[in-house]
Fold this sequence. Notes:
Elements lengths: L2 E6 L11 H8 L2 E5 L3 H9 L9 H8 L8 E8 L2 E2 L4 E3 L9 H14 L5 E5 L5 E5 L16 E2 L10 H15 L3 H8 L7 E8 L11 E4 L2 H6 L13 E5 L6 H20 L4 E6 L2 E6 L13 H4 L2
Parallel strand pairs: 1-11, 1-12, 10-11
Antiparallel strand pairs: 2-13, 3-7, 3-9, 4-5, 5-8, 6-7, 12-13
Amino acid sequence: MSTQYFRFSGAQGLEGRRCALLEKLLARADGPVETTDWRADAFRVLAPQPAAMPPVAAAAFCADGLACGAAWVCVATPLHYRAEASNVRLPLEGVLCLDSAAAEVLALDFNRLWKNSGVGLVAGRSGRLYGVFDHAPNVAAHDPEDVRGRHIEEFLPSGPDAGRLRLLMSEMEMWLFEHPVNRERMAQGGEVINGLWLWGGGEPLGSLPVVQGWVAGDDLFFGAIGARCESDSAREGSGVTVVQQDPGSDDWLRAGLPRLKAAAAQLRSGRISRLELSAGARCFSATTRGMRAFWRRRRPWWESFA
């Protein structure tokens, strides 16, 4: 039976923006189920057979057509932090994007300064940056999307080799301070990059796994995996949709809501048997049968994910 996985942003600080369709689906869904890795949950929709999910950075690196002799590769996401009285916060809009020229300048400059250190930067397509390491560190790191609106301290790398990554991230902050790329961003009215967030690390891949179904939306990992989907045009049957828009926002009305309406219509008609709704660390499961439970009371969507 076909399942669709719908992942959306549920960042802190967005309470008050209601979404009637999302709240109807949540009211009639089963759950929630707590999840520590939503991408792993969504990956099983595309690869129901026993298949190991590749690391996020390794999949993106491979899809970018990049290759190197590194033992470990991670994503290096540019961020703009804000210092507060006793901590540092990543604002909701603090995850930044680079154009390919700026990414290439940063990679070349970093590799010049950190030459022979066992660490390098590689610029990928569309301005994406990757960290490459000669030796694989034993660390756990968070997706910066999970940090939006929060203090960064509790989300910094952890594990036996976390100190190495934390030190490198601190050194990068000093390197980026008044960097020419930042001076140009300031001149153009953009936010400065005051840190690179290292996450999603793993051993580089020789090839991407072949999966079934389709992928829609905007996500680093599923954008890479989608290149190997057996079918990705019909948007019928099993698939994964990832929307970065926050429910109730103007961008959500233009992009996120139409995709949710399409999934809900397929659920009501029986063309799919399950629609999984995921945000933060929770996932709800809506079924065709459950949609008949019209008596269940709706509540603001963010209460379901609190």
